[in-house]
Every structure is written in C-alpha cells, then in structure tokens.
Amino acid sequence: MPVTSAAAAAHVRPFGPDVDALRRQDPELAEILFAELERQSDGLQLIAAENFTSPAVLTALGSPLANKYAEGYPGARHHGGCEFVDVAERIAVDRAKALFGAEHANVQPHSGSSAVLAAYAALLRPGDTVLAMGLPFGGHLTHGSPANFSGRWFEFVGYGVDAESGLIDYEQIHALARTHKPKAVVCGSISYPRHIDYGAFRDIADDVGAYLIADAAHPIGLVAGGAAPNPVPYADVVCATTHKVLRGPRGGMVLCGSDLAERIDRAVFPFTQGGAQMHTIAAKAVAFGEAATPAFTTYAHKVVANARVLAEELTARGLVVTTGGTDTHLLTADTGRFGLDARTARGRLAAAGMVLDTCALPHGDVRGLRLGTAAVTTQGMGADEMARIAELFASALHADAEPGRLRTEVRELVRRFPPYPSR
Ligand SMILES: *Cc1c(COP(=O)(O)O)cnc(C)c1O
C-alpha cells in the first residue's frame, strides 16, 4: 500500500475516538456518548443480539472511510478515488469467504434486514410463496410480517415449533412445503435456542424445488468460531448480520455459491441499495480478521458454555427454559411460575440493572424473556458469573425484591469486567 511515512507522520492522530475534541465542540452530544458508554458498562447486557465490538472495530468505524462515496463494486465503481476503499472491500470479501467457506460474499448490506431483502430480490418475484418460521414462534420481521415489505410483497406461509418440546418439527415443515409449493424456504429465527438442521431443510427444499435461504443473523458468529453448524454448504443463500455474536459493526452480508453471485450482487446494488458504507465495510474486515483467530474460537465455545450454565442455573431457580436448555448463545424463558407477565418481569430486571428483551414463546400467545451471553462473555465472565447472574435474576423476579440492593450487586459484578479498558 503506497502510504508514505510522511503522510502517516502528518496525520499522527487523524481519527479515532478524540472525545476531548468532541467535548469541546459539542458538549451536549458528547455527554450522551459518555452516558451510553456508562450505561453499557454499568449493567448486565443480556440482549441476545448485542455484543461489545473491539476498539479496533470502533476505530475503523470512526475513520475517514466514512467520507467516501463508493457505488458499485471494487474495480467497477461509479465514483473516483476508490483505490483504497476497493482494497478494504476486497479484504472483507476474501476474509468472509475464507471464514465461512463460501464461494461468494457480498459485504455491502447495511443491515441484516437489507441482506434478507437482497436475497428475496435475487431469487423471488412479488407474489411468490415463501415458507418461513411464523413470527409468533420466532420468525424475524423480514419473514412475512404484515408491517414489513416481506409480508406486503410475498405470500408467506408460517411454520411453528412443537408446542410441547419447543423444537422445530421438520415433518410439519415438509408437509407445509408439499401443500404450498413455496419458491423459497427460509430457516433462521430471532429466538430459537437450538441448532438448526440445515441438511433437513435442504432435503425439504429439494423435494419441492424451492430455494433454501438461511437467515443466520444470530448464529453466524458461532459458525465463525466453529461452535454451531455452518449453513453455507446447504443453503443457496445465507443472510447474516455482522454485529451479533460475530462482534463486528452494525451491518449485514450475503454468502452464496458462484452460480448466484451476480444475481446477489445486482440485488444489493443497484436494486436495493446505493453507495456502500466503506467505514463499516472496513470494520467488517477487521471483525472477520478477529473472528479467524484461535481466541475467537475459544470465545464462541465459551459463549455457548455460558449460555448452558445460565439455562441450568435459571431452571434450578424455577424458570421454565424453552426446549429445556440451549445449543447456542441465547435462551428463552417463561416467567409465568413467578406470577409475572414478561413485560413486568423485564421491568423488574431493568430496575436491577439487567437489560434484556421479551420474546414469543412456543405455546401460543404467551410472551417470555430472551437472554444471550455474547456480551457478558466478551467481558470475560464465566460459569461462576453465570450462576451469580441467575441468582440476581431470580431475586429480581420475586415479589419481595429490593431493586436498590440488587442494582448495587449487579454493579459490583460488572465493575470487575469492564467491556473497554479505561483511558
Ligand atoms: C437480527 C436479525 C435480522 C435483522 O438484522 P437488522 O440488522 O436488525 O436489520 C434479520 N433476521 C434475523 C433472523 C435476525 O435475528
């Protein structure tokens, strides 16, 4: 790379988190950034879709690549001056392909939803039938919600999970596929805690001549670390986010075989997006580089081990954990035994400093809580801390809970595991 040392010397600190300068220029906004950092550091972040990116990823995000317009693809841009961002995108693409064993990667989708939109745009026409997990069972908005483009433009048929076991019922999906003859079958969920049998989905799709789209937004980080099965060998198209367990910047990507490469690329740009966000793509490259290290493999397995311990410890304290446990970074639980609906439970937990989501539960219209271990594991927590979290969790749900005391105890726990080193 032709970056001279003179150029480097002239820009000793051209970017990065220059918070002092921001504080002088815009104290009002700087205050918000600090308050948010403090909020993230001062409580237990148990939202299954969140994580703490590395300082290296944040540096790429805060770099002057944010200034660059780059419509098109490396070597074929509609704007000049793309010689460096082209290299950044090629590195991101090569790293993604190597990490997941994919023939083709598109790293431009602005989000997970944009990646799914591109997959549909590449493979489907408006009005086509698509078989996906129903939203009441853990399907994503992009899997046919009437409030989303997917539900408006396609005919979605929803499959569920077994009401008793909470597990995917592959025979039910096969029967629905035979009845409805979908053009595509979608596998992937926002709250399913078990591994997905991509081979079984492939067989179902093949039997009815459908495409198989894996929306692996949640488990893709575990896949990178070898802690969950890889959908790439089975699915025609894999959509993913880069900011969940994978620990990269907010964004999406699409992986596919060479046969669909051109259709996917055209579906991302120019069909559904304009200029690529090159700072985010550079940050994706940094995150893929981190995810290829042995340390990340250790991390991914520890995320799952922590989730398993958390599920056991919560069960021991009276929570009903869906499917009886987890294979992944997330688990869902019913708070009914505590006489609490999920919203009230979430509120009590928030008062004690534990941040998480409510989610759909398998048996009908009851909602539960969804927790994930990606963020707390990044902070360095292990089995002992999971047991402690379960204890604090159950205490917060009891009628005689003392939120003030619990808040202090949560604070004492997280203070030992700062997500970012102090300056
Ligand atoms: C998170 C998620 C998405 C969407 O990601 P965004 O970046 O929020 O658009 C799509 N599908 C599934 C299954 C997800 O879990």
Automatic annotation (TrEMBL):
Q: Which Pfam families match?
A: SHMT
Query: Which positions bear N6-(pyridoxal phosphate)lysine?
Result: 244
Q: Where along the chain is (6S)-5,6,7,8-tetrahydrofolate bound?
A: 135, 139-141
What are the residue positions of the site described as Plays an important role in substrate specificity?
243
* Subunit: Homodimer.
Q: Where is the Serine hydroxymethyltransferase-like domain?
A: 23-391
- HAMAP family (UniProt xref): SHMT
Cofactor section: pyridoxal 5'-phosphate
* Record keyword Cytoplasm present: yes
Which NCBIfam families does this UniProt record tie to the protein? PRK00011.1
| Localization (cell) | Cytoplasm
Protein name (Swiss-Prot/TrEMBL): Serine hydroxymethyltransferase
GO terms for molecular function, please?
A: glycine hydroxymethyltransferase activity
Which controlled-vocabulary keywords does the entry list?
A: Amino-acid biosynthesis, Cytoplasm, One-carbon metabolism, Pyridoxal phosphate, Transferase
Catalytic activity, per the record? Answer: (6R)-5,10-methylene-5,6,7,8-tetrahydrofolate + glycine + H2O = (6S)-5,6,7,8-tetrahydrofolate + L-serine
Look up the record and name the pathway of this protein.
One-carbon metabolism; tetrahydrofolate interconversion; Amino-acid biosynthesis; glycine biosynthesis; glycine from L-serine: step 1/1
What Enzyme Commission number does this protein have?
2.1.2.1
What's the stated role of this polypeptide?
A: Catalyzes the reversible interconversion of serine and glycine with tetrahydrofolate (THF) serving as the one-carbon carrier. This reaction serves as the major source of one-carbon groups required for the biosynthesis of purines, thymidylate, methionine, and other important biomolecules. Also exhibits THF-independent aldolase activity toward beta-hydroxyamino acids, producing glycine and aldehydes, via a retro-aldol mechanism.
